[in-house]
């Protein structure tokens, strides 16, 4: 709804820039909130991030469809979806590495801890079985691991904003795409 209205008034590039700045802001909030932040704040930030991702996904999908010949809309849409899915898959793996690296470092720094304790901490039913003396340390390690992901996200979103900014300053139309294809 919002993306459609914006596309009626603006080119895709400034909309994408605005959406990515929105995502950067949400990532900054997640990276900077203290461990004691109330749950509802995370719900608000998640909603805001969902709005930003919704804009990005809608704008890129509509743009991919609009700049190709009618008989290529299916291919463009499929490729757009495939690219997004592969990107998500790659980033989940990278985020997993970032998180696990920090968790491993945190556990190694305290001889009282092991990885099973972190697994128990994540499940509320098993967390109550952990020794009370190690709970603050385990929570801090998990908190730092999640924050490492958010800081890494800030870098990724900032790079995306820069890539979008320095992309050739041209209006995407079927004609400009055809000209680009003919030059290749």
Automatic annotation (TrEMBL):
<dbReference type="InterPro" id="IPR036259">
    <property type="entry name" value="MFS_trans_sf"/>
</dbReference>
<dbReference type="GO" id="GO:0022857">
    <property type="term" value="F:transmembrane transporter activity"/>
</dbReference>
<keyword id="KW-0812">Transmembrane</keyword>
<feature type="transmembrane region" description="Helical">
    <location>
        <begin position="149"/>
        <end position="166"/>
    </location>
</feature>
<keyword id="KW-0813">Transport</keyword>
<dbReference type="GO" id="GO:0005886">
    <property type="term" value="C:plasma membrane"/>
</dbReference>
<protein>
    <submittedName>
        <fullName>Putative MFS-type transporter yusP</fullName>
    </submittedName>
</protein>
<feature type="transmembrane region" description="Helical">
    <location>
        <begin position="15"/>
        <end position="33"/>
    </location>
</feature>
<dbReference type="GO" id="GO:0012505">
    <property type="term" value="C:endomembrane system"/>
</dbReference>
<keyword id="KW-0472">Membrane</keyword>
<feature type="transmembrane region" description="Helical">
    <location>
        <begin position="40"/>
        <end position="66"/>
    </location>
</feature>
<keyword id="KW-1133">Transmembrane helix</keyword>
